[in-house]
Amino acid sequence: MKYLFLVFLMNLLSQYTGKPLRRGDSYLKSFEDIKNEIAGYTDIAKAIIDLAVHGKAQNRSYERLAVFTDTIGPRLSGSKNLDAAIKYMFSALQDDGLENVHLEPVKVPHWERGEEFAMMLEPRNHSIAILGLGNSVATPPEGITAEVIVVASFDELHERAQEAKGKIVVYNEPFISYGETVQYRVQGAVEAAKVGAVASLIRSVASFSIHSPHTGWQSYQPDVPQIPTACISVEDAEMMSRMSFRGTKIVVHLKMGAKTYPDSPSFNTVAEIVGSKYPEQIVLVSGHLDSWDVGQGAMDDGGGAFISWEALSLIKDLGLRPKRTLRLVLWTGEEQGGIGAKQYYQLHKENISNFDIVMESDEGTFKPSGLGFTGSAKAREIVKEIMTLLQPINATDVYNNADGTDIDFWMRAGVPGTELYLRSR
Fold first, then answer.
1. Backbone dihedral region of 243: left (phi > 0), alpha (psi from -120 to 50 degrees) or beta?
2. Measured distance CA(212)–CA(295) in Å, rounded
3. How far is CA 322 from the centre of its chain?
4. Interstrand relation of 144-151 and 168-171 (parallel, antiparallel or unpaired)
5. CA quadruple 230, 128, 174, 361: dihedral, nearest 10
């Protein structure tokens, strides 16, 4: 995480990617003017690099994150742990000396998985590792016992629709990429219910596995029956696929005790360093505080939240005052589809012209090679110039398109967006 200071440079982007490029409000700056101005930040960039990599801030966000996750643990939307996490961060941001620390109320889903297990009964007894998918309904109290049909795609499911009625659909979809393959997790239950299945089990959306199922949010449709759904490990999905290919009958007993409660009150957590010249104009850096309930949420997205916080800490420690307001937002309800971010957007979109650029870190906190950027071609050229300031750490590349559930609302409305691009991809 020693490269966390990269997010600070978003403060520079705001000067060129949002408002018209004017000098003294009289005429547009030339690109050469902009390049020269960017070059003038070389010493400041070096100071930030030195503080983050070699100075007192070295490993600081890691230590902060370790204390946070060890103290709070998992932070599922609607849970007491998430409430505790928000209170913790509210106090921590105040103690750090940041400005305008406050909470903005939102409503978030409240779902609990309860007890859950699955057992293969035929052709042999085998305990199947499962994780119920968010928003899944429960099975009947006695569970569901049914024959399995294994398919590799939605197309195959539809072709074999008559076979699927009354069965448990197992999706053994090949992993292509998270963005493409995740459709099976999100829509798998709906598509299975359309052909009369009684439950669905989805191969975890992962490139590899050590017998470890993954969870995530899934969505029902109002006009389609709601059936229980869970993820299974890659190994179990492959095994059942092999059995099915041989013509072996597979019977599974599934029991899930999931419950859905009314939406719960929660908060987006906000802190700032107020701009010296254009305080109404916003450079937004962000990550989400909520997580799933089966881990500590250190990578998804504790790391992203804490390096975004660190961006403000570094600037404060160096006594810098950006021209525009640097705003940190720690989102809530991201795992349910950006619920907190959507409500934040609805609340603030009337001032959208004041948002110069938005950034979210939610892809892990490995060593970055540069930025993913969404914006105009002219803005991209300017961003490339800004990234030359990161030559000392070899993180200068600019890639097409930023991604992020929580900032997507702004980017679709035309606000430039960025994300860290990681060498691990």
1. alpha
2. 12
3. 27
4. parallel
5. 50
Q: Which pLDDT band holds residue 1 (cuts at 50, 70, 90)? A: very low
Q: What is the pLDDT of residues 161-182, one digit of tens each?
A: 999 999 999 999 999 998 899 9
Which among 408, 339, 346, 328 is positioned nearest to 78, based on CA atoms? 339
33's enclosing H/E stretch is helix 31-39
Q: In angstroms, rounded to a whole number, what is the distance separating the alpha carbons of residues 241 and 150?
A: 6
The DSSP secondary structure of 212-268, one letter per residue, reads -----B----TTS----EEEE-HHHHHHHHHHHHTT---EEEEEE--EEEEEEEEEE
* Measured distance between the N- and C-terminal CA atoms of the chain, rounded to whole angstroms: 16
Question: What does the alpha-carbon distance between residue 25 and residue 132 come to, in Å, rounded to a whole number?
Answer: 57
Which strand (E) or helix (H) includes residue 366? none
Contact, 228 vs 197, CB < 8 A? no
Can you give the pLDDT at residue 12?
52
Summarize the confidence of residues 258-285 as an average pLDDT: 97
pLDDT digits over 13-46, tens only?
544 454 443 334 434 578 888 899 999 999 999 9
Instruction: Give CA–CA dist 205/17, Å, rounded.
Output: 35
pTM over 0.70: yes
| Active-site residue set | 334
Average pLDDT in the chain: 91
Give the CA angle between residues 137, 143, 145 to the nearest 5°: 115
